[in-house]
Design a protein that fits this description.
This protein has about 280 residues and is an alpha+beta fold. InterPro entries: AraC_E-bd (IPR010499), Cass2 (IPR029441), Homeodomain-like_sf (IPR009057), HTH_AraC (IPR018060), HTH_AraC-typ_CS (IPR018062), MarA-like (IPR050959), Reg_factor_effector_dom_sf (IPR011256), Tscrpt_reg_AraC-type_HTH (IPR020449).
Length: about 280
């Protein structure tokens, strides 16, 4: 089973258990992915989080049931995972623009949200710039923070971490420390457990780190290195989407499961000609 088929299997599992108390561990397990890699892959391919997908699908089914049955609003609220009618009404209005009562009266339009079917492009409209390289292990000196994967808190915390590093001078220190093994400042995701990841902002450096910085060992790996052209953050986000929707399905490679890197230069992040890189360990 290919990795894209694995993700579809996980989506089918969600659909079959929409009324159950779904855990991200059980969903990711259907795809044989870690929680972190499943969350990232799902969000990159669909532009929404797993939690948002489940919520939207439940509210779409709830709207259909309101219009097609005589079940009480409170019973439908409980059925689709809401503890109170007030919480259900608030979520329902946010998605559909009307209250459950208005929906039952056919007052206003509802927002349909259909079951996902993952599709990929096996032939990209534009060629992707990449190379395969093999590297011995190396060291990264930097700052580390642990982020919870619960409610995808990492997606909020990591940008805040970058803002702090860029504003307090840490980024300038890292550029000065760089030993040239990989030129630039790195963002490194380390898949730690089913509930959290370690995220590093650092640079390649073989020595005793200055106060406040720690050392991360990156193992020997075969890497797919992708060139990214354009301003941040859009260019980086678009590159990840093309990698997962076009390159992985047609390349024959799989993610090796070890830390992956984003590589940033000292150039203006808004520069339309900015060059950055994505390093993915593959097998």
């Amino acid at each position: 089973m290919t990795w894209i088929e694995s993700i579809q299997t996980a989506i089918d599992f969600i659909e079959e258990h929409l009324l159950d108390d779904l855990s991200i561990e059980s969903i990711a397990g259907q795809a044989n992915f870690s929680v972190f890699h499943f969350q990232r892959t799902f969000t990159i391919l669909t532009d929404i989080s797993i939690g948002d997908y489940i919520r939207r699908r439940r509210l779409a089914l709830a709207a259909h049931e309101l219009m097609e049955t005589s079940a009480k609003v409170i019973d439908i609220a409980y059925k689709y995972g809401y503890d109170t009618p007030e919480a259900f009404t608030k979520a329902f209005r946010r998605q559909h623009g009307v209250t459950p009562s208005d929906a039952r009266k056919n007052s206003g339009k509802l927002t349909s949200y259909n079951r996902l079917v993952i599709q990929v492009n096996l032939k990209g409209a534009e060629p992707m710039e990449y190379k395969i390289v093999e590297r011995e292990g190396f060291k990264v000196a930097g700052m580390k923070r642990e982020f919870s994967l619960v409610n995808e808190e990492n997606n909020k915390g990591i940008p805040e971490m970058w803002e702090k590093v860029n504003s307090d001078g840490t980024d300038e220190l890292l550029f000065r420390l760089n030993d040239g093994a990989i030129e630039g400042v790195l963002g490194v995701c380390v898949d730690k457990s089913s509930h959290s990841i370690d995220y590093w902002i650092g640079t390649t450096y073989d020595g005793s780190p200055p106060d406040g910085l720690s050392i991360l060992d990156i193992p020997s790996s075969k890497w797919a290195v992708f060139g990214v052209h354009g301003p941040m953050p859009d260019a980086m986000q678009n590159a990840w989407k093309k990698i997962f929707s076009e390159w992985f399905p047609s390349s024959g490679y799989q993610h090796a499961g070890t830390p992956e890197l984003e590589v940033y230069s000292e150039e203006d992040p808004a520069d339309p000609d900015l060059y950055s890189e994505i390093w993915i360990p593959v097998k």
